[in-house]
């Protein structure tokens, strides 16, 4: 473990504290120990160092006093800001995007997952080559180093561009293979159900409980990166369905990752039903629901029928008694199920809900997913105001 300093600037967003707590979890997931946390308020980022020269000096002193090896920002930094901060602090500086990419690189297990992560990393790196190669902004020269007229920077850009094209080609081939598999399921009329949700909401635990699989599940961010699919028997009337466990979403998910993981996320886009797993024990569950819906909209999956699955109710006294409860919207469609994947309470209710949806047409066509503010799972939680204490 290396000591890290976490930096978060409040620009007036209401979820600042939750976002900072999430940064700490991300840092721990990447293998760092948060030893210092620096916060501040600004109306807008400083163009040169994001936090301003005064805060940068305060951060430098804190780093020296606490033996800090790396500084992690809870924001996206420009290449110039990152370079200026590293010069001022004398330490490596990474932003939120780079941190998430690093975690993905550590967790990718399948061939496809590794390809997707490498593509995302190269696309991110391509925008930062100037920072990485400022000391080589000259023609190659010297004995044995006389090149064909390219600078080191141009050479790297060309090599990275070629590698990106190669990875995109491989992922396109995998995407076609996924399409063939989906068409096979369509020919056999097998219902496809995808688990989606915020990272660490308990999707993999629920997947294992429903399928008796042994997919990796842990209480950490991004425990699952690779899509895993299993067949589940729901009785003679329904037969088998295909259930898929997908990568978790997070606020400000890097666009490079959304683009790179599009092949994996196609399982979500092509699903017949989305089970949107929500961590009922999270104090910011409503914001997390909206964040997931934003990503679903970005990948074109926002029109697929969705059922909210409130998981981890065993950790919420107000919800523990609602295990197995199935709620419906004003049209009679199943909209919410309350359960605990860990204890098994409510799993039968979820199976029955999936079976009902599989065998009956909805009373109305599903529309855009409801925003979290449009409803509340608790009787004393009528709006966002009590949720965030505003």
UniProtKB/TrEMBL annotation:
One of its GO terms (cellular component) is cytoplasm. It comes from the Bacteria. The keyword Nucleotide-binding applies. Its cofactor is Mg(2+). The keyword Secreted does not apply. Keywords: Cytoplasm, GTP-binding, Magnesium, Metal-binding, Nucleotide-binding. Residues 363-390 are annotated as: Disordered. Mg(2+) binds at residues 204, 224. Gene3D superfamilies: 6.10.250.2860, GTPase HflX, N-terminal domain, P-loop containing nucleotide triphosphate hydrolases. GO terms for molecular function: GTP binding; GTPase activity; metal ion binding; ribosome binding. InterPro entries: G_HFLX_dom, GTP-bd, GTP-bd_M, GTPase_HflX, GTPase_HflX_N, GTPase_HflX_N_sf, P-loop_NTPase. Residues 191-362 form the Hflx-type G domain. GTP binds at residues 197-204, 222-226, 245-248, 311-314, 340-342. Its main location: cytoplasm. It holds the Pfam family GTP-bdg_M. CDD domains: HflX. Residues 381-390 have a biased composition (Basic and acidic residues). Belongs to the TRAFAC class OBG-HflX-like GTPase superfamily. HflX GTPase family. Monomer. Associates with the 50S ribosomal subunit. GTPase that associates with the 50S ribosomal subunit and may have a role during protein synthesis or ribosome biogenesis. This is GTPase HflX. It comes from Paraburkholderia bannensis.
């Amino acid at each position: 473990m290396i000591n890290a300093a976490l930096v978060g600037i409040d620009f007036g967003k209401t979820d600042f504290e939750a976002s900072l707590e999430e940064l700490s979890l991300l840092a721990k997931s990447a293998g760092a120990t948060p030893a210092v946390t620096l916060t501040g308020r600004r109306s807008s980022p400083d163009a040169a160092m994001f936090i301003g020269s005064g805060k940068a000096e305060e951060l430098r002193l804190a780093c020296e006093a606490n033996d800090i090896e790396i500084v992690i920002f809870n924001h996206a930094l420009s290449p110039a800001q990152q370079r200026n901060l590293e010069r001022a602090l004398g330490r490596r500086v990474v932003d939120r995007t780079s941190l998430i990419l690093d975690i993905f690189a550590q967790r990718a297990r399948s061939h496809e997952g590794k390809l997707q992560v490498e593509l995302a990393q190269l696309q991110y790196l391509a925008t930062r080559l100037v920072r990485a190669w400022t000391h080589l902004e000259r023609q190659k020269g010297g004995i044995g180093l006389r090149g064909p007229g390219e600078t080191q920077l141009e050479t790297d850009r060309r090599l990275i561009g070629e590698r990106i094209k190669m990875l995109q080609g491989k992922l396109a081939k995998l995407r076609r293979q996924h399409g063939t598999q989906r068409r096979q399921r369509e020919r056999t009329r097998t219902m496809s159900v995808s688990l989606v949700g915020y990272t660490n909401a308990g999707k993999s635990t629920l997947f294992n409980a429903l399928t008796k699989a042994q997919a990796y599940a842990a209480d950490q961010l991004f425990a699952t990166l690779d899509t895993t699919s299993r067949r589940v028997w729901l009785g003679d009337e329904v037969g088998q369905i295909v259930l898929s466990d997908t990568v978790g979403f997070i606020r400000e998910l890097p666009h490079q990752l959304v683009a790179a993981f599009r092949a994996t996320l196609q399982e979500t886009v092509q699903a017949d039903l989305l089970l949107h797993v929500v961590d009922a024990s999270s104090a910011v569950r409503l914001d997390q629901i909206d964040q997931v819906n934003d990503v679903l909209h970005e990948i074109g999956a926002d029109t697929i029928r969705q059922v909210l699955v409130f998981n981890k109710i065993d950790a919420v006294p107000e919800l523990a008694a609602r295990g197995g409860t199935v709620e419906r919207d004003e049209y009679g469609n199943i909209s919410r199920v309350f359960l605990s994947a860990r204890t098994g309470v409510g799993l039968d209710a979820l199976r029955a809900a999936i079976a009902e949806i599989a065998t009956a047409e909805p009373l109305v066509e599903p529309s855009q997913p409801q925003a979290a503010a449009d409803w509340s799972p608790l009787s004393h939680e009528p709006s966002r105001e009590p949720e965030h204490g505003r």
